[in-house]
Design a protein that fits this description.
Blueprint lengths: L10 H16 L4 H15 L3 H14 L4 H13 L3 H12 L6 H13 L3 H14 L4 H22 L11 H15 L11
Helix pairs in contact: 1-2, 1-4, 1-6, 2-3, 3-4, 4-5, 4-6, 5-6, 6-7, 7-8, 8-9
Length: 193
């Protein structure tokens, strides 16, 4: 099974879909279900994330206990800027000992977006351990470095403006978002008249 025209899809959604497809194939998943996910990912590749989310939400309602569908929908929610919904779906899957690095990566991104930095660090760390060259390692390093710098600056001079150094991790989260946008592919918006 392959997903056609993935070059235009956001990187994390594609990674989750490909990994989930491989797992589904290994586990003998329903061919119709895999084909429906392929069709949804084609919509993502064409820049139609909203329709893809709607299609996979329908699949999730039909298959509520299926981690394949939950992982895909969680990745799409992460791409769509819906981190609370993404984490609600991804956390039970990511907490499994055999969790996939792509699911862990998306769960970490969703947790970081919600300000749950410890949870994000745990998920990104596990993803990086399982797949050392993944974007999770880069994001985990940025998150840890920014947190350490902010705490050190605040501790060095707690009664001055340096105490606001604890806000430095916000820069790191911004860089993480920038990296996500730099490694994803997004449809160019057309101005409305």
């Amino acid at each position: 099974w392959t997903i056609p025209a993935l070059s235009g899809a956001p990187a994390s959604a594609v990674a989750t879909a490909l990994t989930a497809q491989e797992q589904a194939q290994d586990e003998g998943a329903d061919t119709a279900l895999v084909e429906a996910v392929q069709a949804a990912m084609q919509k993502v590749a064409e820049g139609n994330l909203a329709d893809a989310v709607a299609d996979v939400e329908r699949l999730q309602k039909e298959n509520p206990a299926n981690p394949f569908v939950g992982g895909i929908l969680g990745g799409l929610y992460t791409e769509a800027g819906r981190p609370a919904e993404a984490l609600a779906l991804l956390q039970p899957i990511a907490d499994r000992p055999d969790a996939d690095p792509a699911v862990l990566y998306n769960a970490g991104r969703a947790a970081a977006s919600l300000g749950r930095l410890q949870v994000a660090g745990e998920y990104l760390g596990r993803a990086e351990t399982m797949q050392p060259c993944s974007p999770a390692g880069r994001e985990l390093g940025l998150l840890l470095a920014q947190s350490a710098i902010g705490l050190a600056a605040a501790a060095a001079d707690p009664y001055t403006a340096m105490a606001f150094g604890v806000l430095v991790p916000m820069f790191g989260l911004g860089v993480v978002a920038f990296l996500g946008s730099a490694h994803g592919a997004f449809r160019v918006s057309q101005p409305t008249n």
